[in-house]
Amino acid sequence: MKSFVEENTWSFTVDPLNDPFCADYRIHGFPAVPLAMSIELMAQAACRGFQADNQGEACMPAIAGVRVHSHLVSQSEDAFAIELSPSRQLDGMWTVRRDHRDSEGVVMERNVCHVSCVIDRHPVYELECPACSIEELKVIDSVGRNRQGRAESSESNRCRSASDAPVYRGPALPRFEQIKFGDYLGLDQVPVAVADYRACKSDPLWGKRKLIGMPVTSPAVVDLMLDLASSLAKHVSGQEALPVAIDQLVLGRRPNVDEQVSFLAKWWVSLHEGDGAVLSVVAMGQDGAMIARLIGVRAVALVAGL
Fold first, then answer.
1. Cα–Cα distance measured from residue 177 to residue 179, given in angstroms and rounded to the nearest whole number
2. Predicted confidence (pLDDT) at residue 55 exceeds the cutoff of 90
């Protein structure tokens, strides 16, 4: 990540051939940047500004109003640059932008906004790591642990090639071995999905690429949370879906190495004409402490051309 001449604006080069988060993530066969990585990069850029303003003091940002204006997809395997910049009109608003080029590299459209969110500074010492609710622990126990849920393996998606699958997640990305779906009676038969993931020493999204700094959002965890939301939306509606908005991302503690992290996604309401849903997702550690929570996730049906 390199600073531009403009204050607090950063450039980041994406290499679809070597960056796991792009090489092994495809939408309609084209390399794409996962939403979790866009959020992490904006958070990294924002925190650099926060630390510069506060003599290097650590911070844990409050992230809200995430919006996908268009999926960050590349039409080729060539490396490309994205720009991370704060809004000049709205305080705290950050955007991910890039120039659109044709097959010969000629710029067709400049500075296109793909993702935006609002990032506020929260000093670490002002925050406590919240525990997940007893209700959430009960859902994970009943649907996930006690086999009341209907299990679906992820192996079927692994066999599909990047060109065949509408959304392809390759072996380099973090993935669930199994997802269990159910309707939890304690939540008025709300459709839910439960899955587990064992945290790695290094974030698989980054691969061998040198980290910019300490991860701000635990991007592998957030990526899995969004994947679980998509899986639940697809399970209920029967359509491939991708998150396009998040009302709020609440951060807790980071997962420990080799810790089993439990994930719970809940379906709340269908969107207009049944083309998607509003969901929530929580990730928790073995001690019941919250690692991250997504509130108001809007997952919509994926259509050709996005």
1. 7
2. no
